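I'd like us to work through together how a protein chain folds, taking it slowly. We need material for that, and I hope you will provide a protein of your own picking. Go ahead whenever you are ready, and we will take it from there:
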Amino acid sequence: GSTRALLRATRRAVTEGGVDGLLRESHRVGRERRDAAREPIDERADLIGATLTIRSTPGRGTEVGVAGDAAGALQISSNLTDAEDAGRVLSAVVKAHSQSGKFNEATALAGRIADKEYQVEAWVEIARYASKKKEAKTGEQAFNEAIRIAEAQDKLDRDKAYYEIVKSLADLGDKARAGELKQRIIDDKVRSRADEALAKADAKQAV
């Protein structure tokens, strides 16, 4: 699956001997005897100036994180032919840039993501960190871009994208906008998750 492809491409991109020893062989990627059945699997690729963390969690799929200089992770993305895998890595780099306040780099990179799901994720991360760093204009533009991309998707994909935006807005305390966007969600299950996200944000902010 896509996790195997991502791990194989990562292995090609990293420097020799720089991955917890070695990444698992492609046919062994997944649960091994030493892995608890419901525990996540972590792989770390130590690149030139950066660390790429590939985390496979039951029920959540594969997540990618980047720490340090993002150049190595960009090198990995250039080796990936699958749009979803490339989007996952690029979105992680966008998040790293946003955490560091490098919003020009983050927005430029977000525009390069072909996969719509990860494109929305990237813009949401930009908006979230820009809002936290009091970069109101950047945050507003990023949320608008995420909403624009979500609106252009089909049905369930659109609803899932709306959910991610609602969750981020709720976490930031923008309940009015989160509530308005939640009303656009058609799927009952996704809307229920959005209601839960709003309730959790309310409870967290009330503490």
About this structure: The first helix runs from residue 2 to 13. Strands lie at 41-47, 50-57, 61-68. The two ends are 42 Å apart (CA to CA). The chain has a mean pLDDT of 75.
